[in-house]
Design a protein that fits this description.
With 479 residues, the chain is of the alpha+beta class. The protein contains 19 helices and 16 strands. Strands 1-5-6-11-10-9-7-8 form an eight-stranded mixed β-sheet. The radius of gyration is 30 Å and the shape is elongated. The structure holds zinc ion (2 copies). The site of one zinc ion has 8 residues, from helix 9 and helix 12.
């Protein structure tokens, strides 16, 4: 007998008494069914992919709100690009020798024969959209932000999942280092506005292709001389992606990195000036920064400035919440006009983990102050319309339409601690009225249904009633 069937049957039909006898009988009956059916009762999400349950949403909502607000304040507009792109796009932009492309991409062939991949990061798709849609004709800099999921077939660990979410900011068409400073400022603002106050900005310059060529030769020479002291992966990286070795977390590689030549000592004149000016701008900001010569980021497309935002409260627990840098050559590399660009991404799961650690507040949705209770068939029918009328006028109303008895509905109203309960009974439904009950004093009054909105607003002292404080939302909401 196939094991799978037995297992499922015992689970499904298990009973505290007489289990064994019934089990053997049922198993025999089930024997003709294919095992695939048995497996179907046991679906689980894929490893490293998580449900974001309602209970977790207040944290996510807070991240979305803070990000949207800041993106607006700094002149960014939203862009959404597909989850799936041609695999070549990522290979070409992120780079062949990188871990992401070599080991971590979800790549597959479609029924039509296209080789595609789930996006392992956001920037490549956004650049593709920028070129494809001729966005270069717009006034520069063009500032775009996005929120979405990315996919990496990695070993899942806390804050790093196979499906995870990012907020992403990119700006195109401006090479002045003031933009680098502004992007670092925005990244810090997002994190700090979420209540994560103690952060560290880590920055470095990895130069442009011309100064990097020279530096890479120096670095490779140095690494070759220490090859025996490197981890197995890094020995291979000498050929494929030597700068990435500076970023390796293995103890022995860290040892080698300490005395390795540093990119900032080998910048060309232009790159040196860019970095120096950036530091001058950063000195004007409140946030302290650290020059970290080992910060290289794992992607080929970066030039000049790279940076990360680290949580900085406890020693030994510093974690990167995200980062980014310049990618001045990428648009051209992908077939567009020569366009300088800079961007960063922050991992939402990491932000939330840090918010929880420092006990930052999640978003608190507005609580309804009004409850609508109904009694009887006609009242029940009218209650949907009454709810709509209140909702259209920005009054947040709670209800428990499925319940029949007034008592059980009032119990819900009490639990929600509303200030007013509206009672729509058979008589009121016929008369076109409704009872307004003040839950604190217990005082009841009957008003005409036409005047209901007006009276409620008066009773709740007008402004408190409007539930959606976000102006845009009210606007859309009432259309
Ligand atoms: Zn350079
Ligand atoms: Zn290593």
């Amino acid at each position: 007998m196939p094991k799978t069937i037995k297992k499922t049957v015992s689970k499904k039909y298990s009973s505290p008494r007489g289990g064994t006898e019934r089990l053997s009988k049922q198993s025999k009956e089930k024997k003709t069914q294919p095992p695939v059916l048995a497996q179907k009762t046991n679906f689980q999400s894929l490893r490293g992919m998580n449900d974001i349950l309602p209970v977790a949403q207040p944290f996510w909502e807070q991240v979305r709100r803070v990000t949207e607000r800041l993106s607006r304040d700094y002149g960014f507009t939203r862009i959404d690009v597909p989850l799936v792109e041609y695999a070549d796009l990522f290979q070409r932009s992120i780079g062949e020798g990188t871990d992401i492309v070599e080991k971590e991409m979800y790549t597959f062939t479609t029924r039509g024969g296209d080789r595609v991949a789930l996006r392992p990061e956001m920037t490549a798709g956004i650049c593709r959209a920028y070129i494809q849609n001729g966005m270069h004709v717009q006034p520069k800099p063009i500032k775009l932000y996005s929120i979405g999921s990315v996919y990496r077939y990695d070993r899942p660990q806390e804050g790093r999942y196979r499906e995870h979410y990012q907020v992403n900011f990119d700006a195109f068409g401006e090479m002045d280092p003031i933009l680098d400073a502004q992007m670092i400022q925005i990244a810090s603002r997002v994190v700090q506005n979420l209540g994560i106050k103690a952060i560290q900005i880590q920055i470095n310059s990895i130069g442009c292709p011309s100064c990097r060529r020279e530096y890479k030769d120096l670095l490779v020479n140095y690494l070759e001389s220490k090859k025996q002291k490197l981890c197995v992966d890094c020995r291979q990286r000498i050929e494929t992606n030597p700068m990435r070795i500076l970023d390796c977390k293995e103890d022995k590689c860290v040892q080698v990195s300490v005395t390795a030549p540093q990119s900032i000592d080998h910048l060309c004149e232009e790159c040196r000036k860019h970095f120096k000016t950036l530091l001058e701008y950063l000195d004007e900001l409140d946030s302290p920064y650290t020059i970290n010569p080992h910060l290289v980021r794992g992607l080929d497309y970066y030039t000049k400035t790279v940076f990360e935002i680290w949580s900085g409260e406890e020693e030994g627990r510093k974690r990167s919440l995200g980062g980014g840098g310049r990618y001045d050559k990428l648009i051209k590399h992908l077939g567009g006009e020569d366009t300088s660009a800079i961007g960063f991404g922050l991992g939402i799961e990491r932000l939330i983990a840090e918010m929880k650690r420092v006990q930052a507040k999640p978003y608190r949705p507005p609580k309804p102050k009004v409850f609508l209770a109904q009694l009887g068939d006609l009242a029940k029918k009218n209650s949907l319309k009454m709810f709509l009328e209140l909702e259209k006028n920005g009054i947040l109303v709670a209800e428990s339409f499925g319940r029949g008895s007034l008592k059980s509905q009032l119990r819900v109203a009490n639990k929600l601690e509303v200030e007013i309960t509206l009672i729509l009974g058979q008589k009121e439904a016929l008369d076109g009225t409704v009872i307004i009950k003040n839950m604190k004093t217990g005082v009841q009054e009957t008003v005409s249904a036409d005047r209901l909105v007006e009276v409620i607003k008066k009773r709740l002292k007008s402004e408190n009633v409007i539930i959606y404080h976000d102006h845009n939302y009210i606007h859309n909401h009432n259309q």
